[in-house]
């Protein structure tokens, strides 16, 4: 039997460090979470020092698995994979000049830098490289700079509240340049912030949304979820946390729960082509998930995120 112990990181690195310390003091067998890369980064060293296996579900910053922490894993892909798919999606729009915008967080800056590196090989030119501040209410100054740079498309690497604001104020200023966003924009609330008219046509990178999961395990899970809660999960990130739980259960079963280093070894050896909810799962030596996970979605006129053909 499994007892689930919950601590709230509050989406804040300082709170996450305290949450990790509390979990370590309670002697948990493993930790699942969290979503934001900077929040995960504040917790991962504490958990590693306590010899507790840590599996993140939404933290895609490359450096998280570049530190040599043997007990850290993630069921989500990395920003360099996302950047590779992003460049393909940008090129598929027919664009030649690309503007990149980020919000200076670990995730956003990392994704922006990786995308910037890949533009040249795809025959794309960098028109501008700008930043926004999380939580700000007026981004017209940034939009004015972007418009002056004459990009054919804008790639936004931050989170959905700022993406929605950019889309809304872009429409208000009468500028119809296409926007492509990273996976942190995959949230129905983006459409609430932007409005359906401004959000329509927005392209978003993401692991497959729950309704697009086609593995037998996923279909069974989604049917059970709908029966209990009346609707499918609103986000893929919770499903990726479910995959973290499933691979940990597999590793704990294989080792009979004999300590963090042993469980970590089992995640690398016993979890091979594991039938996850989001597809087959295996981990490389660094703890990164192996395989191609990202898809491209388009916001339609109703505000729904619709799967497109891969570029």
Structure description:
The protein is α/β, with parallel strands linked by helices and 311 residues long. Helix content is 41%, strand content 15%. It is built from 11 helices and 12 strands. A hairpin with a 2-residue loop joins β9 and β10. α1 runs parallel beside α2, α3 crosses α4 and α10 crosses α11.
Which keywords apply here?
seven-stranded mixed β-sheet; 41% helix; 311 residues; alpha/beta; three-stranded parallel β-sheet
What share of residues is helical? 40-55%
Helix vs. strand class? alpha/beta
The radius of gyration is 20 Å
Distance between the termini: 44 Å
**Oligomerization state of this entry?**
single chain
**Unreliable runs, pLDDT <50, ≥5 residues?**
none
Number of strands: 12
Order of helices and strands: HEHEEHEHEHEHEHHEHHHEEEE
Principal-axis shape equals: globular
Provide a count of the helices.
Answer: 11
Average pLDDT figure: 94
Strand content: 15-25%
Order of strands across the main sheet: 5-4-6-7-8-11-12
Largest sheet: 7 strands, mixed
